[in-house]
Amino acid sequence: MKATEVPEITGAYLFEPTPHADERGFFCRTFDADVVRSVGLDPNAFVQDSLSRSVRGVLRGLHLRSGAGEAKLVRCSYGRVFDVVVDLRPGSPTYLGRGLFELSDATQTTLYVPAGCAHGFQALTDVADVSYRIDRPHDPAEDVTIAHDDPRLAIPWPLPATSMSARDRRAPSLAEALTHEEG
């Protein structure tokens, strides 16, 4: 497994495993504490694992947490997703930068999303399972959502959004969300 820094988002990393394939399928390590530690992250900081299943066209996000934020490891364990990270840390050298990725079951690549960054994805296959390893327990009172189609972000979602949560459909613009966070 190797770790690669994401240039568009300071502190974000892609962890790329080495699948071992044969006639039975494949085997790969999807988490390695030593590799995580090698880029300065504490592998023991992750306290909660979650899984979402989406169908083609479903769009989830853009989500982040207020307060101390939330760092997470994200991997598409089945299917393919178009994944987006937006840096919303005011002091970051990549503030408002965005990283666009395709995560899939073929590569099992894991994306590290630093606290203070918004995250979202869209399912590109009939079924897409996304697993999350989060660094602090979820508190719905800290949830922040930003409109996926905010023109300032100009995210090139590959498909029309076939389904979204009510919360995501009502999400405020980036400017409104940032004003609310500062206020």
Short description:
The chain is mainly beta and about 180 residues long. It has helices at about 35-40, 165-170, 175-180, and strands at about 1-5, 15, 20, 25, 50-55, 60-65, 70-80, 80-85, 100-105, 110-115, 115-125, 125-135, 145.
- Enumerate how many helices there are, as a single number: 3
Strand content: 35-45%
Biggest β-sheet: count, sense, barrel? 6 strands, antiparallel
* Alpha carbon gyration radius: 16 Å
Distance between the termini: 42 Å
Q: Fraction of residues in helices?
A: 10-25%
Strand order of the largest sheet: 1-2-10-7-12-5
> Unreliable runs, pLDDT <50, ≥5 residues?
none
Going by helix content, strand content and strand pairing, the class is mainly beta
Beta strands, count: 13
Protein model, in words:
This protein has 183 residues and is mainly β. The chain contains 3 helices and 13 strands, in the order ββββαβββββββββαα. The chain has helices at 33-38, 166-169, 174-182; strands at residues 2-5, 13-16, 20-22, 25-27, 48-55, 59-65, 72-78, 80-87, 98-104, 110-113, 117-123, 127-134, 143-145. The chain has a 6-stranded antiparallel β-sheet with strand order 1-2-10-7-12-5. Strand 3 (20-22) and strand 4 (25-27) form a beta hairpin. The longest helix is centred in the C-terminal third of the chain and has 9 residues, at 174-182. The radius of gyration is 16 Å and the shape is globular. The model has no long low-confidence stretch (mean pLDDT 94).
